[in-house]
Structures are given as structure tokens and as C-alpha cells.
Amino acid sequence: MSAKGALLQLVARRLAQRNTPATALSLSAPQRLRLRDQRLYSTEKQPEEAAAAGAEQKAATTSPELEKLGKDLAAAKEQNAELLDKYKRALADSENMRNRLNKQISDAKIFGIQSFCKDLLEVADTLGHATQAVPKDKLSGNADLKNLYEGLSMTRASLLQVFKRHGLEPVDPINQKFDPNMHEALFQKEDKTVDANTVVEVTKLGYKLHERCIRPALVGVSK
């Protein structure tokens, strides 16, 4: 063996002694085997410990994400409740609007002839005044006057039947309690036979169209 080879072996032996702990140099061969097994065992456990550490790190990483998802879910629920409330309100408003329109359409069908009826009331009043103006005591002695009276009476009766067919009815409140919604008081008079605020005289008949007063009766009321 050359001097160079001997020198290399000596350096390698010294390095091995330096890297080997003092306790390992003082151990016997069986003890060195057990120490090696323990090192191998600890080496095998390292992947499990690393996995546990990775799981903890992952949990720490996902915790903020879960918190953010929870906040987003709560905001979405709140927005959904708000939109649902707006939808219900809009649905109720549309239903109310539909009911109002239906009522207006129904009223228009019923009361659309109100203006026309008011004009015809003057005709009915004229026929009534004409029949009342005929002297009843002269009817038996004057055939022409009798025929005129009967014609006026029949015309007025036919007109009142047409009124009734369309829901227009006269209001004659004699001896009834005064109703400001249906009557218009022109004067007051003393009358001890009836209670106060009782209609004792009707100057002009009133009319109602489907229970709606289109012309109040002109009346005199007791004191």
C-alpha cells in the first residue's frame, strides 16, 4: 500500500469517528442495532406527522374561506327575503288594482246611463204636472179631456216602468224621517201630529239609480 492510500484511509476513519456520536461509539453491537431500529421507526413516523401538520395547515387555510361562505350565505338569505317581500307587496298591489278596475268597469256599466236618466226625469216631471193639472171633476163631462188625461197617465206609467226596468226608481219620502243623503229640505213647518224632522210635504219626487241617489227629493220638514 502506498503512502497516499494509507493517508486516505486515516482521513476517512477520522471523519467517521467525528460524525458518529460519542454515545454510539461507547455502545455495544446489540445496542447499536436497537438504536438503528429506533431511528428507522422515527423515520417511518415522519410522513404521518407531516400529514397531520398538513391537515392542520389546510384547516387553518380553509377556516377563513368557510367564514366568507357563511357571510355570503347570510347575505343571500337576507336578499332573498327582501325580494320575496317586494314580490308579495307587488302581487297585493296588482290584485287591489285589478279589483278597483273591475269595480270601475261594473259601475260604468250600471251608472253609465245616469246622465241620460237625469234628463228623462224632467220629462217624467212634466207628464206628472200635466196629469195633475187636469180638473178631475170635468173628466166625466168632456170625453176629449178624459182621453187626454188617460193618454198622459198611460205615458207616464210606461215611462216609470222603463225607469224601473233599468234600476231607476222614484223616491217619495212622505211621513219618513228626514235623510240628508236622499232628501233636500226646502222649509220647515209646525206639525204636532208627527215627530220633529219628519217629511210632511214633498214638493218634487226624488230618484235613485241602483240605490244611488241621482236626484234628492225636495221636501218640507216638521219642526
Question: Could you describe the 3D structure shown?
Answer:
- The chain has 223 residues and is an alpha+beta fold.
- Helices cover 66% and strands 14% of the residues.
- It contains five helices and six strands, in the order αααααββββββ.
- The strands form two sheets. Strands 1-4-5 form a three-stranded antiparallel sheet. It has a three-stranded mixed sheet with strand order 2-6-3, with no helix packed on it.
- The longest helix has 83 residues, at 29-111.
Query: Given the C-alpha coordinates, what overall shape results?
Result: rod-shaped
Computed CA radius of gyration, to the nearest angstrom: 57 Å
Helix coverage percent: 55-70%
Order of helices and strands: HHHHHEEEEEE
Beta-sheet strand percentage? 5-15%
The total count of strands amounts to: 6
Report the sheet with the most strands, covering strand number, pairing sense and barrel closure.
3 strands, antiparallel
Strand line-up across the major sheet: 1-4-5
Low-confidence stretches: none
The number of helical elements comes to 5
- In whole angstroms, how far apart are the ends? 158 Å
Instruction: Summarize model confidence as the mean pLDDT.
Output: 81
Structural class assignment: alpha+beta
